[in-house]
Amino acid sequence: MIRLAIAGKPNCGKSTFFTASTLAPAEIANYPFTTIDANHGVAYVRIDCPCKELGIANCQACKDGVRFIQIGLIDVAGLVPDAHKGRGLGNKFLDNLREADAILHIIDASGGTDEEGNPVGTGTHDPISDIGFIETEMKMWVTGLLGKNWQRLQRSAQQKTFSIEDAVTEQLAGLAVTYEDVISAEREAGVDLKKCSEEELASFCGELIRASKPFLVVGNKIDLAPPGIIERLKNENISFASAASELALRKAAEGKFVEYIPGDSDFKIPEPENLSDAQKSGLEAIRTIMQNFGGTGVQQSINKAVFELLDLIVIFPVEDENKYCDGQDRVLPDAFLMKKGSTPHDLAFQVHTDIGEGFLYAVDARTKMRIKENHELKTGDIIKIVSTKK
Question: CB of 189 within 8 A of CB of 206?
Fold first, then answer.
């Protein structure tokens, strides 16, 4: 399963973002280090289901053509300066990021918390100064991990049959760093790892973090942010969110007070007479935020991380290409997130190892034509896999 980590300094709204995304319980409070142990939950990416385009009326896997695909979400402890040296909960925090495929760096767009997460007056702290903060801490952490044994690694690579790139990959296997990540980082940093000094090592590690743990900065608390700060942040190419607004809407939808699907740009109030004036006023304030930003930003940020940062596509495997269903007549029952460039054979293995091993050919359900084993799939493809194994 794809996993995103929610990271940031204390008190920037990470746990509210997590709860709004998953409706899983997480302690939320206005003081640093509310989160001590990582919270794990299930969130979803939102896509358009192909059923409407195909004119299928009995698709039970979506709601009004809107479909959600499960991903994992991790809310980790807040990070403070020099966390890589163990300050605050730093080492614990950094260790929790090992299993993440990408990181949502939540910053307090209201400027209401200082660099260590202590509450200050709204607009007092410059949130732009928080951008890049976690990336730097992770870079220094990985530099420390490699630096402890760097000269030994270089000597071992020179004396043995494996390369220095292989040695680094093996050393950082717990961070899900791949050989390709190492090669890319070495190229981008402009260093030769065989001769790399300890000073050049930090530059390499910075590129390695960007390659293996891509970041999306999310300016949270836009409902509290002064307009001037928002305008400045818009120049920083970040996403915006009001996790508190999203959480309020999801709770209201649970109680049937509003009709809202996560990721919508608006909501409906079916029976406004059942709401108090204060509730109506609160909802209208949320509506204004959504009109200004195209939604609350929570679902939009998750989607951006999955489809833009991680460059994933969505593929729908079926057993019957004519009815677009599985063996139990369930229409479009599954939707898989896969790397761009994946092939039908890759899809077969993702369905089941046995299916992949017995792969014969694939059929494009839209055209009813066979496609090659190495055909590059594109998002929205509906594919039947023919295999010697069931």
Answer: yes
Domain holding 298, by residue range, is 3-128+215-304
Q: What is the pTM of this model?
A: 0.89
Q: How far apart are the C-alpha atoms of 158 and 167, rounded to whole Å?
A: 11
Which residues, in sequence order, are CB contacts of 102 under 8 Å at separation 6+? 4, 5, 213, 214, 215, 216, 305, 306, 309, 310
Q: How confident is the model at residue 31 (pLDDT cuts 50, 70, 90)?
A: very low
Residues 258, 120, single domain; the answer is: yes
Same domain flag for 221 and 353: no
| Helices 277-293 & 243-254 angle (0-180, nearest 10) | 130
If asked whether residues 355 and 291 sit together in one domain, one would say no
Tell whether 295 and 168 lie within a shared domain.
Answer: no
Which of 27-31, 191-195, 243-247, 296-300 shows the lowest per-residue confidence on average (mean pLDDT)? Answer: 27-31
The answer on pLDDT for 390 being more than 90 is no
Query: Domain ends where: 158, 180, 211?
Result: 211
Q: Report which of 384, 386, 372, 379 is spatially closest to residue 49, judged by C-alpha positions.
A: 379
Q: How many domains does the chain have?
A: 3
Residues 163-190 have a mean pLDDT of: 88
Residues comprising the chain, all counted: 390
Of the given ranges (106-115, 136-145, 248-257, 282-291), which has the lowest mean pLDDT?
Answer: 136-145
SS (H, E, C) 83-129: HHHCCCCHHHHHHHCCCCCEEEEEEECCCCECCCCCECCCCCCCHHH
For residues 244 and 374, state if they share a domain: no
Report CA torsion sign: 241, 245, 251, 253.
negative
Q: What is the dihedral of CA 130, 203, 6, 333, to 10 degrees?
A: 140
Do 97 and 156 fall into the same domain?
A: no
Residues 40 and 114 in one domain: yes
Report yes or no: 17 and 6 within 8 Å, Cβ to Cβ. yes
Q: Which CATH number do you get for residue 232?
A: 3.40.50.300
